[in-house]
Amino acid sequence: MTLFGLPPAEWLPIVFAAMMGFSILLYVILDGYDLGVGILTPFAASDQDKDMMVASIGPFWDANETWLVLAVGLLLVAFPAAHGLILSTLYLPVFIMLIGLILRGVSFEFRVKARAKYKNLWNRLFFLGSLMTAMSQGFMLGLYVMGLQFTLVTILFSLLCALALTVAYAFIGAAWLIMKGEGRLQIDAVRWAKECIWGLVVGIAAISLATPMVSARIWDKWFSFPEILLLSPLPLLSLLLLFILARSFKHLPDAGDNWAWAPFVSALGLFVLAFMGLAYSFYPYVVPEQLTIYEAASAPESLMIILIGALFVVPTILGYTALAYWVFRGKAQTLRYD
Fold first, then answer.
1. Which three-class secondary structure string do you get for 39-66?
2. Residue 171: what pLDDT?
3. Phi, psi angle pair for 115, to nearest 5°
């Protein structure tokens, strides 16, 4: 079945690459803020504030992680050759990430149900799991940008990305708490967001500088004419969002919460723009400079069958995610298990 004149062998890999990219983007944004909240918990002024921070992500964190499962699943079934190459190369950071996710899930439940004397232990493990997950994801991002090559330079760059992404997650987590928190917690969240914004800026700048350096093809896509004109809205919009952020911080916290939404929405915009820049740079490669989406894709017959299932699964996940955010809109309430 052709689509816009393209045979299935050409348009199906594009569709699945778009679905996988969409899943990764939603995971980074949604699980990014709840990882950020976990990273910030040691800096809360009281146990009550820590409880409210965890309560702010309580209804959402499980659904947020669904997008990671979907992205990895799509990589496995639609691009098996890339799945094998990427995960075998990133085996150690993936292992660390999974341990971090397990620690987060267990400590999220146990910190409430365990005896009071063990609560601080589970709080620390919740922080540790969030930190391990964020750092490993940043390291994987840096190594992916550098073409999955292990050299001293690529490892150092990946460590920089690990630090920058961790602080960026803390920033978007603080922005979430500005929107969901009240009183002293919201005041602290404003301070944390101001202190962590550099992580997002440094991360975007570092990747933006490194990406065209690793490939002459990407350099041409960025700086040739008229491609440079097509790419120019991304940095301009990023500067506009940073301006909105700076302006919103001047009004926060305010009694009417009129600007409480601005940091989080601006952070979402910055994450989306950064992701669009990466997608533009690396297309059509699923493994930078090694494997294109067409070379890595499963047979068109298999992709067509998988697509039928995806047309049911993806809207379902979107639907219950949207429902959860609608039902639990507004300020965070005390998390209860009874």
1. HHHHHCCCHHHHHHHHHHHCCCHHHHHH
2. 93
3. -60, 155
